[in-house]
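Retro notes, item 3 of 5
We never archived the inputs for the 6-O-phosphono-beta-D-fructofuranose complex last cycle. Fixing that now. Sequence and ligand:
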Amino acid sequence: MSRLVVVSNRVTPISGSRAATAGGLTVGVLAALRETGGIWFGWSGETVETGMPIPKVFRTGNITYITIDLLQADFERYYGGFANRTLWPLFHYRLDLASFDRDWYVSYRRVNQLFAEQLYPYLRDDDLVWVHDYHLIPLGEELRQLGIKGRIGFFLHIPFPSTEVYVALPWHDRLMEALSHYDLVGLQTSNDLRNFHDYLYREGVGYGLADGLVRAFGRTLRAQDFPIGIDTEDFARMATSTEAVRASQRLSRSLLGRKLIIGVDRLDYTKGITERLRAYETLLQNYPRQRTQVTLVQISAPSREEVPEYLEMRRQVEAASGRINGLFGEFDWMPLRYINRGFTRRTLSGFFRLSRIGLVTPLRDGMNLVAKEYIAAQSEEDPGVLVLSRFAGAADELDGALIVNPYDIEAVAEAMHRGLIMPLDERQDRWRRLLAQIQERDIVHWRQNFVDALAQEIDPTN
Ligand code: F6P
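Structure as it came back at the time:
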């Protein structure tokens, strides 16, 4: 069997303080790699002022981690600039927040080249190389230029935007061409895949073939959707662990019998947190009987604080939280607990299990694994209700949730109310359906499907 070599910008074994801010990528990749073993290559999370990077190699269990530091200047332009101020907002349909800067693009390409050069000596001919996410789109092309002929696949964890939005990127054709050097391009949903095909067709640079293949820039590759899942059983177990039970008992005592509504996200403008708070405010406004009967705990772990848009967003969330508590609070009840720090996934699983409603209402999201974790954590006797944005990739699969348009504040407030008064048998029916979905399409399913598709030969005559 071929060895799996995973490459991603962030290589963080999930432990310590970053555990709660870990996005879907780290959670998903770690769960997948633990099963197969292999190499995980990427940025160490450290920056240096000068010098050439020297890879650090360490092994934990069956995974060999190889990490490199980045030059501070590259980190600022490649990660803080091109990845997080150009691609991230653009791919999440926030053209208004996207900045375009040639120096950032140059640095992005340079870091990808550097990653390829540093990874190259570790690669064997029959490795399956699996590159992750928008930070590393050109990596496959760079590896090909170094002479790597083996199978290289790419998976995009965030949405692939519609052509109209994507072509605003001055380097849209360069990045698409870079993608054509992979043997396999994986996207989260059928909608992302449609957008990918649409670009090729509309820009006249390619077209779809049979069996998931596409022709792009004179090359034939496979392009498919692979919705990422979670380790469902593992997360369900977490929710009944001692740590989870202790934390949820503590929270429960403080609620004094009130129903818990919970939201957990990285503090990111794509997550729709300010809109969610407005919806909560509307709930309290439109359904006065719910006042003093509910508590919203909004946990927003700090993220990418070096990016100015994130600081601005933090200010907005803080202002909205203060306003809601000021408007509706009583001397013995505060409607909202806004917490600007992360918790371990174990603790969160306990909070999910205790809650009546889970709010996952991003304005745009590749998948959103919190939605799936929320389902996995519930108890059969008294499951909570998932209120899920139609703009999260997860909404494609999770039709047992209350699907909402996060921009429609009144509708989100109504969905919250519906969840609060939903009879037990309906909650159970919905939850069983949701659970079956996340059990069937779990992390193993995702990894196996991707790796099998990557290993599959492509008929060059196709
Ligand atoms: O899932 C999307 C993603 O950007 C991942 O690539 C990343 O690891 C995660 O969110 C957290 O973001 P960051 O690595 O920038 O802290």
